[in-house]
Amino acid sequence: MDEQRQDTARNSALEYHEFPRPGKLEIRATKPLANGRDLSRAYSPGVAEACVEIKANPSDAARYTARGNLVAVVSNGSAVLGLGNIGPLASKPVMEGKAVLFKKFANIDCFDLEIDQTDPEKLAAIVQSLEPSFGAINLEDIKAPDCFIVEKLCREKMNIPVFHDDQHGTAIVVCAAATNALRVVGKKFEDIKIVSTGGGAAGIACLNMLLKLGVRRENVWLCDIEGLVYEGRTTDMNPQKAEFAQPSDLRNLDQVIEGADMFLGLSGPGVLKPEMVAKMTDRPVIFALANPTPEIMPDLAKEVAPDAVIATGRSDFPNQVNNVLCFPFIFRGALDVGATQINDEMQIACIEGIAALARATTAAEAAAAYRGETLTFGPEYLIPKPFDPRLIGVVSTAVAKAAMDSGVAQRPIEDLNAYKRRLDSSVFRSALIMRPVFEAAATSSRRIVFAEGEDERVLRAANAMIEETTDVPILIGRPEVVEKRAERAGLPIRPEKDFQIVNPENDPRYREYWETYHDLMARRGVTPDLARAIMRTNTTAIGAVMVHRGEADSLLCGTFGQYSWHLNYISQILGRGGLEPHGALSMIILEDGPLFIADTQVNNYPSPEEIAQSAIGAARHVRRFGLEPHIALCSHSQFGNLDSDSGRRMRRALEILQEREVDFNFDGEMHIDAALDPEIRQRIFPASRLEGAANVLIFSGTDTASGVRNILKTKADGLEVGPILMGMGNRAHIVTSSITARGLLNMSAIAGTPVAHYE
C-alpha cells in the first residue's frame, strides 16, 4: 500500500509539472500591445527615450524597467536539498519552484538561472555580470564551502543584494523559532548551551546568527560526520567550521550533548538518539531539521523528554522551519527601498517580525488554510504559517525600515505606515478600498451586535474589531460555547471580559426583550407565548430588539440561514420611522477595481420606484468608499429597443431619477457590455449621459443581480464586500453564509460608520 501511495504521489507530482503546459513559470506583458501606437512606445522608436533617461541616471532603471522587482534565482545544482549534486539542468524544477514562491508570496518576478560552472570564483564572476539585469540575486543550492566563496565575492563586487537563502534564510527562520522557543521554556540566548550537527552552509549560518542574538561562542558545540569540531582537528575542516572549534578532549555527539539546552540539527536522519536527549536539560529545545527524515522523530524525543519543544523541517509535525517565511519578504523590503545589500540589521528585523507574528493572534486566513491545526502561540506553534497574509506587511516593512536605518537604502520610503498598508492591500484585497470606511468608523465607537456569536468567523471578526478599531462587539450566544470556541481558535478574547455577551438561554433582560417584541408585533398576530419563544431561539430577532431599544447601534446577521428569513425579522422590528429596506448592494473587488451590484437580495422584481431608490442608495454608499458613482441601469433592452417588462421598468426608473435631479452620473437601460465599455456605448448611443465605464450596475431582478455577483466571485476571482442593506439607516446588515472573518470585519466597519457619514 505504501509503495502504491508513493507511486501515486510521484505520478501526481510529475503531472503537476507537465500539464497543462510544461514547467511552472511564464512571462506576461504588463503593458498593452494591441496596435501600432503601442508598438512604437514599447519598442522602436519610443523605447529609446527610456534608454536615454537610464543612461543619464542609472537609478531610473527602477522607474522605466522591471529591474526593481526582478530577482535572479541562481544555482549550479551542486547541493540540492535531499538530492545532492544533481547538476544545473536537473535542478531547474527546484529553481522554478523557488521563483513561483517569490511571486506567490511577495509578487516578485524571477528568472531562474541554472549555471554549468563548478569553480566558485568563475561562478561568482558570472553572477557579477548579471547585475545590470536584476535588482537582487538569490543564490540557491550551491555546496559548501563554495557557497561561502561565491557569496563573499559577489557581495564585495556588487551593489545589489546577494542572499544565499540556504544559509541566511534558514538561519533567520531558525532564529525566529528559537527566539520563541526560549520564551516558552523561560531561557535566554546568553545562558544556553547549544549542540549542533551539520557543518554545512545552513548550519554555520544558523550558528553565526545565534551568536548575533546573544549566544556565547564558548557555549556552541559543533559536530559533523567526523565528530566534534575541536581545536587542532585537521580532517574535513574549513575556515568557517574552525571558528567554532572547542578546546576540548570530548570527541563525539554523545559526549557533548550532556547538559545541552538546545540541539540544532541540520545533518541527517537518526543522528540524535533518545538516550542523548535524556542527557539534555529540562525542557530541552530540539530542532531536528534534516529532511525528509529528521535527526530524531518527535515522538521518540517526547518519550524521554515529554516537556521538549521540538521543530522539524516537515509539514506533518508542528513547527515546520520553512524558508518561505523569510526570503520573499526580506527581498520585498530590500527591493522596495533599493537596498545595496541585505545586512545583519535587516536579517535581525526579519527574525523579530516573524517571531512577533507567531505571538500575535492567528489570522483568520491562516486558520482557514490550516484548519484542524493548533495555531496558538506555545510549544507547538513557535512560528507563523507560510499562508499567514500578515507576513508581507509586518516583515517587509521591518526589513525596509532596517535598511533605511542602517544606511543601505538608495530609495528610502517616506511613509512606512502607508507602505505597510499598500503591502497589506496586496494580500487583503479589500484593505485599500475599505480604508475610507474604517477611517469614518474611527470617528466614533459604535456597538455592533452579532446575531451568530458562536460562529468562529464572528469570533475572529470580533477579535479583530477589538484589536484594530474603536467599535465594540456584542455577541449573542451561549457563554460556555463561545469561550470554548474562542479558546480552540487560539483567540485571547473571552465573554464579559473582552466583549458583552447576550445568552439567549438565560439573560436577565429576557423579560424586557420579549415584552418589547410583543409590543411591536401584537397587532401582527404575535402572542406573548410566541414572543417568549422567539426571544429564546431567534438570535436575529434578539439583536434587532437590542438595536430598537438603543442597546446596540447596528446588527450583523446571516452567517447561516436564508437572507429573506433574516430580512423578515429586521423589517418587522426596525422597519419603522421612515426606515424600509429597499435593496442590497454588493461590492465585488476585481483585478481592475471594484464593481457594485444591486439589488442582489431584497426585491425579486423591483418596481421602477424601488429601482430608482436602489440607484440613489448605491450612489450614497459608493461615495463612502471615496469613489464617484457611475450608474448603469441594466436590462435585456438597450436604450428602448425592446418593449420588455424589465425595459419598461428601467425606463420609468430613469425618468424618476431625472425628475429628482440626482447628483450622480447615470443612464439606462443598457446591456452590461455597453455599461462597462464606453466605446461600445458610444457606437450604440452616442448621446448617452453616462461618462466612462460604469462602476455600479443596477438590475431589474434579484435573479440577474445575484447571478452576476456569483459569476464574478467564482469565475473572475472577485472578492465581495457586502451585501450592504440599503434603506435601514445603517441599523442592520445581512451577510451571506459564504462570508469570511475578514468580510465580517469589513461589514462591521460599514455598520460602525456613524449615521452622519452614512447619510
The global form is: globular
Strand order of the largest sheet: 7-6-5-8-9-10
Specify the structural class.
Answer: alpha/beta
Assembly state (oligomeric): single chain
Number of helices: 33
Please give a structural write-up.
The protein is an alpha/beta fold and 759 residues long. Helix 27 (608-624) packs across helix 28 (645-659). Helices cover 45% and strands 13% of the residues. Strand 9 (285-288), helix 14 (298-304) and strand 10 form a beta-alpha-beta unit. A six-stranded mixed beta sheet has the order 7-6-5-8-9-10, covered by helices on one side. Strands 18-17-19-16-15-20 form a six-stranded mixed beta sheet, with helices on both faces. Strands 13-12-11-14-21 form a five-stranded parallel beta sheet, with helices on both faces.
Question: What's the SSE blueprint?
Answer:
Elements: H1 2-18, H2 36-42, H3 47-56, H4 61-64, E1 70-75, H5 87-90, H6 92-106, E2 109-114, H7 120-128, E3 136-139, H8 146-157, E4 162-164, H9 165-185, E5 194-197, H10 201-212, E6 220-224, E7 227-228, H11 239-242, H12 253-256, E8 262-265, H13 274-277, E9 285-288, H14 298-304, E10 309-312, H15 327-336, H16 344-359, H17 364-369, H18 391-405, H19 416-427, H20 431-441, E11 447-450, H21 456-468, E12 472-476, H22 479-488, E13 500-502, H23 510-521, H24 528-537, H25 539-548, E14 554-557, H26 563-574, E15 583-590, E16 593-598, H27 608-624, E17 630-634, H28 645-659, E18 665-670, H29 672-676, H30 678-684, E19 696-698, H31 702-715, E20 719-726, E21 732-734, H32 741-751, H33 755-758
Parallel strand pairs: 1-2, 1-3, 3-4, 5-6, 5-8, 8-9, 9-10, 11-12, 11-14, 12-13, 14-21, 16-19, 17-18, 17-19
Antiparallel strand pairs: 6-7, 15-16, 15-20
Helix pairs in contact: 6-15, 7-8, 9-10, 9-16, 15-18, 16-18, 18-19, 20-32, 21-32, 23-24, 25-26, 27-28
